[in-house]
Amino acid sequence: MIFLIISLILTFLLTLLVSGNNLSAAVGTLIGSRIVSRFYGTLIGSLGFFAGLALEGRFLKGAAISLIPHSYFYISYAFLVSFIIFFLATIGRAPLSLTMALAGTAIGIDLRIDYSVNYNFVILMIMFWILAPVLSIIVSYITEKSIFDRDYKNVWRVAATLKILIIISSFLTAFTLGANTLGFIANVEGFNLITVIIMAVAIFLGSFFLSRGVIKRVGEEMYLMRYSNALVSLVVSSALVEIATIFSIPLSNTQTLTSSVFGVGISYKFKGIYMKSFFIIIITWIVSPLLGLLLGYLV
């Protein structure tokens, strides 16, 4: 019973940090494009998180079953390790992948206790982690060059249309993050009404009070977005994460979104990308699952 309570507390805290840290993956480009204020962008993102968790969160049940035994002791430990890693990332204003940290920790625990690891699933998951960012860069680059990198007669009408599409895409991106990343947390804990209520409260608190620094890094520091940039990045990112969700594969929006931003950035001859921020994010993708694996094994 005590470990059930501890795991619920950690579920709340982890969701709090994830919502604040990863909100940038949904609305960083929206705010960076100056389409809406930070308040309304945060509202759009938090509503999308909750809708995705409530409607599609159960899709990640297969991932939870494959990666960690349903023991509240091990769940509590996995959440604690992920919380510590995520807390450090929040301080450093780096958009960390929760799915990679938590999955790495779970695998480390499995190896330590000789739990039967579903290696086929692990290999498939890692393939998604590698291929999704690459596809994000390629598809975003090609789309930006072939569709939006041209002159339009009615520029103002195109701009107005793009604004509406970006707002919709931002919500859908948040929706997929809620379904995949937050759905992964919910299924590891045990997807039920109490878990969803606890996570819903944490979503709104984290989104509004813990997101400022990371939004600035992704939405403003990394690349100054045009409307077409934001739209391409969001659509490509949300599409890939939705595909992963359907197949019950944990995949972080920070990977696909940041890679999409990079893809549209390199499509310009006279525009530049702040490479320092991009490389910091890549480092967190590599370090988080390896650190989680190590700490999980030391349980």
UniProtKB/TrEMBL annotation:
> Span of the secretion signal?
none
Any GO BP: phosphate ion transmembrane transport
Q: How does it sit in the membrane?
A: Multi-pass membrane protein
Q: Name one GO molecular function term.
A: phosphate transmembrane transporter activity
Taken from the UniProt entry, a GO cellular component term is: membrane
Q: What transmembrane ranges does the database entry give? A: 35-60, 72-92, 121-143, 164-185, 191-210, 231-253, 273-298
Please state which protein family the record places this protein in. Answer: Belongs to the inorganic phosphate transporter (PiT) (TC 2.A.20) family.
Q: What does this protein do?
A: Potential transporter for phosphate.
UniProt protein name: Phosphate permease
